[in-house]
Design brief:
The chain is α+β, with helices and mostly antiparallel strands. Helices cover 21% and strands 32% of the residues. The strands form 10 sheets. A 5-stranded mixed beta barrel has the order 1-2-8-11-10.
Amino acid sequence: MSSIPGLPTPGSDVQILITRVNSSPLCVLVELWGNFSQGKKAEYQYLAQDIQCPGEIFHEFEGNAGDQCLVQMDNIWYRCRIVSRHGSNYSVFLIDKAWMRSGCSASMLAWGKKEHFLLPPEVEFCVLANVLPLSHGNSWSHTAMEFLKTLPGKSVKAYVQEILVPQRTFLLHIPCISKLMYEMGFAKKLSAEMFKDFVLQSLRSPSEAVVSTETQEMPVRNEPEGPGEQMHKQPFMYPELPTGTMVTVIVTEVTNPQRVFCQLRIFSQELKKLLEQLTQHYEGRLATCNIGPDMLGFPCAARGSDGSWYRCVLQQVFPTNKVVEVLNVDYGMKHLVTVDNVRPLAAEFFRMPVATYICSLHGITDKGVGWTAAQIDYLRSLLLGKTVIAKFEYQSLCEGVHYVTLYGHGNTNLNNLFSSKESGLLECEKSTGDYSKLMCMSAFAEKDEAQKQSKTKMTMQPAVIPAAQNLSATPSEGLRSTGSGISFQTQNSSNESRTAAFMAHMFPIGSALDVNVSCIESPNDFWCQLVQNAGHLKWLMRDMQTYYASSQFHPFVETACVARHPDNGMWYRAHVINRQTPHADVLLVDYGQTKTVSLYDLRRICPAFLNLKGQAFRCSLYNPADPTSTMNDWDEEALAQFEDFVNTAASNHVILKCTIYAVMCNEQKVLFNIVDLETPFESVRTRMVALAKSVPPKKASESHSHFNGSYCYSPHNIKTGTEEMVTVTCVNGVNQFFCQLERNADVVKDLTMKLSTLCHQLKNAKPPTKCGTVCFAKYTDGHWYRGWIKATQPSVLVHFVDYGDTLEVDKSDLLPVPREASDIMSVPVQAVECSLSDFPASVPREVNSWFESNATEHKFRALVVAKECGKLLVELYNGKTQLNSTIKKEFQIEMQRQEQSFLNTH
């Protein structure tokens, strides 16, 4: 194993602060940037202060590629390295941020002192080890990407599994992350050796590279006599384009509106020179190159059909014809070339950054049906080869694209121009044969044989799956409800016959969502839709009416389908609950309504109409009087009040806020989101709590429902602007600490007593072993508390939900949560997450240490200033002394001392 001086060595355990994650589905590896030097934070702070007095400002044309210097952005100086210079314009790489920045002038650059560059970069490039996507096509699911977005800002323990020195890449095994990804069902586990082999095959540059399952099995090499040249993995660099940047670009390739390649024109002359140098370097050289499947994603030089050589990335290997597919990173085009026209890319050709970006036209969507040939042809005629102005609206890391608005001559908005034309093109195309319909027919034809032999049971019984399970089209039994959506799948004993399925929304407990109520059976059972997706659903419905307008019935066995509404005649996405000739009972998955329709009003669903998730998710109103049940005894007046609340909000165009308190399942094991609905003026729970009929408390064995492996969330009726007496129970820093409300002290005391009694009875029970499950855990004080298992390897980590801290616990100190513990599980989580208001996101470690020492287990008066992402922003008072102000004063004094100490030592 190799190592990098001054950085962790292979086989070592480290603490890393994750600063950024690339969750692009174009990259199967989880790439992240992290800080190993948290113990040297003061040194980097000293350095950041010292470089604010830079050396001599650059003169015009001063500095060359590879030089280390300082760059000023937003009046702050940063360490950087010059990547390229084009006249008086520079592209630089920010050493401590791992960012590229283009368009820098000489006046923004300055020389630094030699000692400014002694410290290693503050962040390093890492890859999460032993983790790959579980979904087909080697791409991350939406759920996975949402999870990955939560990682920045977390400090975790990691094991340095391997260091790829040439690429300065750390392969990190992070158990608390990878284990959770396995348990949540969207990642598969590889052994360390297999993962290293995969990385060597598929670690790729920021441009896309697709690993072909065909080429992975091909031990192909082009090996003439004598040793050939070897390719090496080295990532290309890309200039950073801040949000809102407007720049002139050349459109070099158009695949569809979501895949347009834009090249920065400012680099066009320099790129032309680079290509000339490439051609001079490689053309006529008698050399051989070893090419194998372990090199997929490697940069290379390839000879184009015009005789010129280009910078490329190896995509696929076809051994029979000794041909490879490459992606031209500077122009966005893919080519097939023979292996004797491929060479390793020499180091000097990495110095110029790649200035061609994968872009998506902002505001343009395919509405769930894909793009027709006529639409793409029109778009190519509009853009391909044209010089236009591009406004980079924002970058989507999860999609691996920049969203842009393009402007042509006379400031014409080309996005709007294409949007206005594409609808007409769709109708024109339909008259000559619907492209989408052909695609659907083709997809069904491929499945016909399997479907003819598939015998399914058409009467569906509800069944439950874990809320975090990947809702892909896996044959299984029943109508499956999740915590926030539904996935419909047919019962089938064969693992080979896969059927269509509706994907589902999944929301964390405590989420606050803007919704419409689409269907009401009772306050115990109603359905909501996300407001943010209303436009997508509108387009989907419009396109389905057009698509199925003249369709004919053909027998089929799938349960995911399209059904004609018996009342309004419109077509809806549906799931067949029961089929009994000549009728079928169906659930309209985007609205929650159940209808009986004629079998002849059912149609097979086009796969393109499965892309949008099922829009309705099932809910039950939270009742504090009986929070453990989805079967509260609401009377007719309560139902009328509930409907009036919803209808009044709808008629006044008031958006309802839906807060998810828990996820529970009823006795039929159908899952519900336990929610409250609010307008800015009123909560429906508050209005109706007095209308719930009083019923005798149920015994555990009589409970109609139980919690689905989760705790109950509550905002504890805390309002912005109010004051609460609190006890700080856990401090991670000024930006995250946990409190218990003084008014809930009796609740906590009662909970502790019940836990003690129950856990004494469970002392011989088998401890839970699955990550992500609820449990009872023994704390260092010897008492039992409610917990949640965050990790099981290399050690068990438990989050104590009523106090906020996370500790390592022996397996012998864990107990399972039995079904009869519903009264304990129904008590809302008592730890309230808080943050001191008006503090920066990052503060010196000494500030957090001072706060921890002076706040933990102390009582304060908390003024709630705001609510942000489920967290309370507060001001803490000890008597009349405001702790926020005290810390800021102490912080300023400490910083002045540090500055003086630094100046004295230099």
